[in-house]
Amino acid sequence: MLILIQTFFLAFLSSILATAIGTFGAIFIYQARRKHQHAILSLNNILMVAPDVMIGASFLILFTRLAELFHFNLGFMTVLLSHIAFSIPIVVLMVLPRLKEMNDDMINAAYDLGATPWQMLKEVMLPYLTPGIISGFFMAFTYSLDDFAVTFFVTGNGFSTLSVEIYSRARRGISLEINALSTIVFIFSILLVIGYYFIHKIRGIVMRRLYSFVLGVIAVILVLFGVSVYMQKTMSSTSQSNKLVIYNWEDYIAPDLITKFTDETGIEVQYETF
User: Fold this and answer.
1) Nearest 10 degrees: CA dihedral of 31, 33, 35, 36?
2) What counts of helices (H) and strands (E) characterise the chain?
3) d(C-alpha 216, C-alpha 219), whole Å
4) CATH code, domain with 142
5) CB 148 within 8 Å of CB 114
6) From CA 1, how far away is CA 272, in angstroms rounded?
7) What pLDDT digit, counting tens, does each position of 36-64 carry?
8) Half-sphere exposure of 18 (CA within 13 A, CB side)
9) Domain count of the chain?
10) Is residue 45 part of a domain?
């Protein structure tokens, strides 16, 4: 249950941050000179076309070097930064076409009427970009939720996601737990598509819809964070003495031996490979 909460907390948090950064990045690219736009877009597309294994290995090398300098461990923050990094190009590609469709006369008219840059952004540009922003968020959320390769490289001790957990459990054999976890991801993906459809069907003031959407996402993030902290404290205080964590080479210990050990001693074994 804790892994499920951590996975959705990571997906929501990385998606909302990537959406904010990607939206303003798209605006910056749109306002840049034309000869610079192609160069910036080429850099933006690197994480889109590069294989996931290459991206994960690159982030692993980067964070390993930074860990030596700043003395931190791989874990939630490294996974969060990685997910934000590969989600930003997705948001940019969703928002930028919407910007190019916008009539420049709308911006010029706002300035002619005495609007400040902030007022123009709030009252003209962001309302027009709202469909692209929401689409970018859902795309970033989906990529973060089902990512495995990058997460597998940069995750550390004490943090895992559903995709990594399903993979580690599947190597020991198909079980009811794997089926349950896979069903949860599948059902939530369907609910995500349905929610995306209804959000786009809502009529009314566009900016009010955007504000409500952002506030709703922030509320979900705070709730998931609180539940995650509570569950971590509960689990650490109740089951720390009955859990054995083993870090070993892959397939070094037979899964049947671990099951037999748990049945005889009552001690849960968390077997991690590297």
Assistant:
1) -60
2) 13, 2
3) 5
4) 1.10.3720.10
5) no
6) 18
7) 888 888 888 887 888 888 888 899 899 98
8) 32
9) 1
10) yes
